[in-house]
Amino acid sequence: MLNINFVPDDYVQSNESRRTNLMYLVLLVVVMAALGGSFVTIKIRQHAYRAQEKLINTKLTRIQEAVKQFEELQTRRRTMMKTALTTAELLEPVPRSILLASLTNNLPSGVSLLKLSLVQNEPKQTSRSVGSTSKYQEMQAKMASAQAQSRDSREKLLETNIEIEGIAPSDLQVAAYIERLSASGGLLDNVALVESKEHKIEGGTFRRFKLTAMLKKNVRLKKDDITRISSRTAETGRRF
To answer: In what order do the strands lie in the sheet containing 159-168?
Structure first.
C-alpha cells in the first residue's frame, strides 16, 4: 500500500528550520547564561581578593608601625644604657669589671674564688671629747667639714670595702695572693687575712680563706691601665 504525503515539502523544510533555529537559540541562551555566571563569579572573586588584599595591607602597615616603634624603643634603650654606663664610669673611678679582673689576674696557681662582695659605706668620723675642744674649735671643725663636703662629691667620700672568699691548696698560696693584691697596681689597700681553715672537697684537703681589703681613695685608672688589665684578663682566660 502506498503512503501518500499530502504535506508540502516547503512546509516540512520550514518546520525543520524553525526547530533548528529554536535549538540554536536555546544553546545561545545557555552559553550566554554560562558566560554571565562566569563573569559574576570572577567579579565576586576579584572583590573578595581585593578585600583580602586590603586587610593584608592594613595588617602589614600595623606590623611596620609596631616594628618601627620597637626599633625606636631599642634605640632609646641603647642610648639609656650608654648614658647609664657613662654615669657609672663617672661615679666609679674604678669600674667593677676592672676590679674583678684585677682580683682574678692575681690569683696564684691552684687558687679559686668562691665569693666576692663589694660594699660602699661612709667613712666613720672620729668623735672628739667636748672637754678638750673649745666651742670655737668645734665650729671651725664643722665649717671645714662642710667646705670639704662641698668640694668633694658624696661618691668620692664613700669607702669601698671588699670581702673575698676562696680556696687554695695551702696557706703559701694564700700568702702569695695577699702579697699580689697588696701590689696590684695601687688599687687595693689594707689587704688582710680574716680566717683560713681546712676544707675538704672530693677527698682532697684545701684551705678555705677569707680576705678583706679596701679600694684606695682618689684612685683613677688611665686608659692604658684599663687596656693592660683587660689584656691580662684575656691571657688568663686563654690559659685556663
So the answer is: 112-121, 159-168, 204-215, 188-201
Question: How many domains does the chain divide into?
Answer: 2
pTM recorded for the entire structure: 0.46
Residues 78 and 12 in one domain: yes
What number of other Cβ atoms are within 10 A of residue 219's Cβ? 14
Q: How far is CA 134 from CA 125, 127, 142, in A?
A: 18, 14, 12
Exposure b/e, 119-140, CB count within 10 A at least 16 = b:
eeeeeeeeeeeeeeeeeeeeee
Q: What's the average model confidence in pLDDT over 198-219?
A: 84
Do residues 160 and 216 share a domain? yes
Domain shared by 84 and 203, yes or no? no
For the stretch 70-103, what's the b/e string if a residue is b when 16 or more beta carbons lie within 10 angstroms of its beta carbon?
eeeeeeeeeeeeeeeeeeeeeebbbeeebbebbb
Among 68, 91, 114, the domain boundary falls at 91
- pLDDT-derived band at 11 (thresholds 50, 70, 90) equals low
Q: How many CB atoms lie within 10 A of CB 173?
A: 20
Q: Which residues contact 5 (CB under 8 A, 6 or more apart)?
A: none
Helix, strand, or coil (residue 103):
helix
Cell of 188: 687595693
First to last CA, the chain: 127
Number of other residues whose CB lies within 10 A of the CB of residue 62 = 10
